[in-house]
Specification:
This protein is an alpha+beta fold and about 475 residues long. The chain contains 15 helices and ten strands. A four-stranded antiparallel β-sheet has the order 8-9-1-10. Strands 2-7-4 form a three-stranded antiparallel β-sheet, with no helix packed on it. It has a three-stranded antiparallel β-sheet with strand order 3-6-5. Helix 5 packs across helix 8 and helix 9 runs antiparallel to helix 14. The longest helix is centred in the middle third of the chain and has 38 residues. The protein is elongated and about 130 Å long. It starts with 11 loop residues before the first helix and ends in a 10-residue tail after the last helix.
Length: about 475
């Protein structure tokens, strides 16, 4: 067999003898690895892991009877999870990691302050409040109790914080630092896991819990507020109708007893009474819608409510023009929300999307005004019809007309009471369930030990890494020849 095809062989015994001869290299590698481990344990700032689990789930079919309403509302309010789970959950993840939500956590926990000495201390324990209006480079200082006046701003330290040595960063840098230490991922199904690597155990647990709380608070949408106002209005109206119904039944019984009139009346009188009751019912429904819309339009015009609340008004959702406008607003708002997860709120792209959203939103009020005028005209027409029917009823014999009219009032109030009860139930369900089920399943607990660096794993990694380094150094310099 030719020499260039001879198989490669490895002499294990020779290798062992070589390692034994050059054991100092192996020992030097092990010592170096252990020294590196010791340096990591001594000088590396320890970190603690906090973990919270958030459930984000929508109840389908609770947002109304219109086929397109749930999709419209879910587009208007990012975060309502429906059948398009993955796409909308991605929006929720972006919202959780947005600089707006993280900034609220930074402000609450005073994370612009990073304690150095004593270490592993929550900043909120050392600092009462901060006033740092501008951007600045990080600075280090020793705190004194009370106001610490600096060129960068004012730091109000507590008595506990007196003598603490800290690093001070501006708000934007603190937000970026928290975002780097934060991880928000889909854990499976509708569950979202929030992880944070903190410099102290208390803050490691506080950040995931507070971030979830901020997110859930912001998710209390305009539409949920509208449903609550609608529920309050319908409940008050239903109570009034129920009181009027009881009073009408008592009046009818008294009138029939006093006049001796039976329940039978002329066909003409009953026909007029039925028409009158129908028109009165339609008038009551129109009045309820008009009063609710008038109140909402007035609040929007006075800038006490978001114009997007108009998009959640049940009657306006039937308009194709409103639906198209809502879809456009939802698309722009979603793009802006996702963009906020990557750039600062003052970025030109964010400002452009915000102006586009405000321009589209401003078109909702004129549309609502036009619909409001149409309701007024329709109500005036029905009122004229009701007045005409009432005049015809008045022309009937007084005793007969009184009984028939009272019967018609009782019938109309009974139907209205049943309808109002159904509307109250629907509004109560919508107020309770709209926006889905969003709750904190697992609250982050304060970790008992450091997540990194941990002593035993660090020593083992240093030992094996040093041993490997020493073995790699053994063959360097050639293999000595056997004498």
């Amino acid at each position: 067999m030719p020499a260039d095809h001879e198989p490669l062989t490895f002499d294990l015994g020779a290798a062992a003898r070589l390692v034994a001869m050059r054991w100092r290299r192996v020992a030097a590698g092990v010592v170096f690895g252990l020294l590196v481990s010791a340096a990591v344990l001594l000088f590396w700032r320890p970190s603690f892991d906090g973990r919270a689990l958030l459930l984000i789930r929508e109840f389908p079919g609770t947002t109304g009877s219109l086929p397109s309403k749930s999709s419209i509302v879910s587009q208007l309010v990012p975060g309502l999870l429906g059948d398009q789970g993955d796409e909308e959950l991605a929006t929720e993840l972006a919202l959780l990691q947005s600089r707006a939500a993280i900034g609220a956590v930074v402000d609450s926990l005073r994370l612009e302050v990073q304690p150095r000495e004593p270490g592993r201390t929550p900043p909120a324990l050392l600092i009462d409040s901060l006033k740092l209006p501008d951007r600045f480079r990080p600075v280090k200082l020793t705190l004194k109790a009370g106001a610490n006046v600096l060129p960068q701003g004012i730091v109000y330290a507590s008595k506990t914080g007196a003598g603490a040595y800290v690093k001070l960063v501006d708000r934007e840098d603190a937000i970026s630092d928290l975002a780097d230490r934060l991880s928000v991922e889909k854990a499976g199904g509708d569950a979202v896991e929030i992880r944070y690597s903190g410099r102290d155990s208390t803050t490691a647990a506080q950040v995931p819990n507070l971030l979830a709380h901020v997110y859930m608070t912001r998710r209390m949408t305009v539409d949920r507020g509208l449903n609550q106002r609608r529920l309050e209005f319908l409940t008050a109206r239903a109570d009034t109708v129920r009181h009027d119904l009881r009073h009408g039944v008592d009046s009818l019984a008294h009138l029939q007893t006093a006049s001796g009139a039976g329940v039978d009346a002329t066909i003409a009188a009953r026909g007029l009474a039925d028409q009158y009751a129908t028109v009165q019912g339609q008038l009551a429904q129109l009045s309820a819608s008009q009063h609710a819309l008038d109140s909402l339009v007035a609040m929007v015009a006075a800038r006490r409510a978001d114009p997007r609340a108009l998009a959640g008004f049940p009657d306006l959702l039937r308009s194709a023009a409103i639906n198209d406008l809502v879809s456009a607003i939802a698309q722009v708002e979603t793009q802006r929300t996702v963009l906020l997860g990557r750039v600062a709120p003052g970025a030109p792209q964010v400002a452009a999307l915000q102006r586009a959203r405000d321009s589209l939103t401003a078109q909702l009020l004129p549309m609502a005004e036009a619909y409001r005028q149409a309701l007024a005209r329709q109500r005036a027409s029905l009122q004229a019809t009701a007045d005409s029917l009432e005049t015809q009823l008045a022309a009937l014999p007084a005793r007969e007309a009184g009984v028939v009219k009272q019967e018609a009032d009782v019938k109309q109030l009974s139907e209205l009471d049943a309808g109002m009860g159904a509307q109250v139930l629907q509004a109560r369900l919508a107020a309770m369930l709209e926006g889905g089920d969003v709750r904190l399943v697992d609250t982050a607990a304060v970790p008992r030990r450091v997540s990194f660096p941990r002593p035993l794993p660090t020593w083992l990694v240093g030992l094996f890494a040093g041993l490997l380094l020493g073995l790699l150094l053994v063959p360097l310099g050639g293999v000595p020849s056997e004498s």
